[in-house]
Each structure stands twice: as C-alpha cells, then as structure tokens.
Amino acid sequence: MHLLPSFVSLASVASLAVAYPSSLYPRSLASFQPEESIASQWKIHESCNGTQRAQISRGIEDMHKLATNSLNHILNYPKDEYFAKYFGANADPAPVIGYYAQLVYGNKGDSLLRCDDPDDNCRLPEWNGHWRGNNATSETVICELSYTSRLPLEKLCSGGFQLSVNNPSTYFGADLMHRAFHVPEFSHEKIHHYADSYVDVLELAKSEDGNGTRAVENQHSLQYFSLDVYSRKLTSWGCVGEVKEEDHDDHSGHDHSATSSAAAATTQTQAAQASASTPSAAAADCHTHADGSIHCGTH
Length: 299
Ligand SMILES: *[C@@H]1O[C@H](CO)[C@@H](O)[C@H](O)[C@H]1NC(C)=O
Ligand SMILES: *[C@@H]1O[C@H](CO)[C@@H](O)[C@H](O)[C@H]1NC(C)=O
Ligand SMILES: *[C@@H]1O[C@H](CO)[C@@H](O)[C@H](O)[C@H]1NC(C)=O
Prior knowledge:
Layout lengths: L2 H10 L30 E2 L5 H27 L4 H7 L5 H13 L6 E3 L14 E3 L7 E4 L2 H5 L22 H11 L1 H4 L10 H9 L12 H16 L11 H6 L11 H14 L9 E3 L5 E3 L3
Parallel strand pairs: 1-2, 2-4
Antiparallel strand pairs: 3-4, 5-6
Helix pairs in contact: 2-4, 2-6, 2-9, 3-8, 3-9, 6-9
C-alpha cells in the first residue's frame, strides 16, 4: 500500500518532466491494474485471399507450436543435452526463453504478412517470400511458391527429411520463425546469422567455451533447436540424420555473415542444392537484410 501514494505524488510533480529526455519520461499508465492484454497477433494483409490466409494462419500456428514446445522444454530441462548441443553447455537459458516467448506472446505492433508482391521479388525463381527490409521493416511478403513447397509440422521427419542435411524452412512454421526474427517488432534486431549450416551451428555452440554468447542469438540455432526437440515428441529419435563433418569444408569458403551474398550466384547454388536434396520442397529461402543485402539462408 505505501508504494501507491509515493508513485502518485511523484507523477504529479510536473517539473520532473523537464528532467527526463522524452523517451525516458515514464508513461502514465492508465490504471493500476496488472498488465493483461498484449497485441500478440501477426496480422495478415487484405491482399491475401481466403486460401492464402488459411495456409498462412496454419503456418503461424505451427510456428507457435514450435516456439511453445521449445519454451516449455527449456523451462522443464533448462540445460539438458539438446540445449547444450545447440546453444552451449555453459549458455544461459534465459535469453533463449525470451526469444521464443517474444515470438508467441510479444506485442507484434504493425507486423504484417502480405500476399501481393509490392517489391516484385516473387518472380525470382525459388523465392518463397521475403522481408521487405528498408521498404517496410514490419512487413513480410509470402510468395506463391510457399503454398506448394512448405510443409505442415505433422510431416516433420517424414519423406526422408533429415535435419542435418535438408532445409529447416521446408516446414512452414520454421520458415515463418525465421522470417519473424527479421522483423524488428519480434526480437528487436537481436537475432543474427552467425552460423547457418547444421555443422556450423553445432560448432558455434562449442565455441567461446560453450558460453553461448553468439549461439543464443543465432537464427539457425533457434530454428534447429525448435525442430529437433519437437521432432522428438513425434518420433522416438527425431531425424537429425548423419552429421557430415565434410559439410563444413564445403562451406568454409563461404562468408556466412549477414552481409554476404552475390545474390544471383547464391540463388543458383541454393536452387541446385534444393533440387538435389530429398524433399522436393527444400527450396531456396532468400530474404533481404536491413542494409539491403540479400541473404539466401538454406542449408
Ligand atoms: C487465392 O489466390 C491464389 C493465387 O494467388 C489462387 O491460386 C487461389 O485459387 C485463390 N483462392 C481463392 C479461394 O480464390
Ligand atoms: C524496395 O523497393 C525498391 C524499389 O521498388 C526495390 O528495387 C527493392 O528491391 C525493394 N527492396 C526489397 C527488400 O525488396
Ligand atoms: C564468451 O566467450 C567470448 C570469447 O571467449 C567472450 O568474448 C565473451 O565475453 C564470453 N561471454 C561471457 C558471458 O562470458
């Protein structure tokens, strides 16, 4: 009870206003009620027709399933073998819990998924969608290809899919998780591309004495972890497959940083890789970063 009068008197001292830069000036909260409602929905634009909206909504549901399962798994087993494998044996579970929680529960502001193609990128072969970058930072375009190439979560581990070999974004829910991490409203630009391939992700977790500094904010680490732990609820052993060490050598010439990419060349390589991999759906997954560079993040 004694907190209340002191807060009220503090807020009523008008002269305090000048002491705060505007961004730090405490908002006057409308009532003394606990915070209850959050605008957590990722909105779908009117350019999406009924079937597109239904499929995207289903993808968002799958993304929530992946994130919620990851969240619950870590809360139950904060530093188990899977956490150590993807984030590091000495990593802090708290930021990872936070990123998954933001995906599901965070205020999404004006974040929007749209089905028209305002930047005319969907004409590019193998593009399933893209983040609009500086053209509209809260917007993500979903291209036609997504409706034919993306799979529902029940198909995880079916059709010969192997997590260490095939594109994790084959699954619409995981694909949208990746796209969500690009949108500032979801994770406040804290998620990066430090390591993309499965082998590189495992190595990142072991680096820095397993303290997880970079692994916990690495897009593919969060995506792989969520698919791996979810797949183990569907099947006894998941479907990581045989982790091929030489994969790392194949990619050692690559710059995996977010700013990399000769877009055209990469798209071609990714397209070739996609057609060679088991599920036909493993198509390239190109998107644009804030600095305008194009990143094709399939492995
Ligand atoms: C929605 O649009 C797609 C093409 O973008 C079309 O293939 C599909 O038939 C449309 N669905 C409906 C219900 O009109
Ligand atoms: C933004 O718009 C410009 C002009 O239409 C276009 O050239 C560019 O590719 C767009 N950026 C993205 C990320 O699509
Ligand atoms: C983790 O390791 C890196 C590299 O050794 C170091 O720069 C960083 O400060 C460490 N972080 C923590 C939280 O110990």
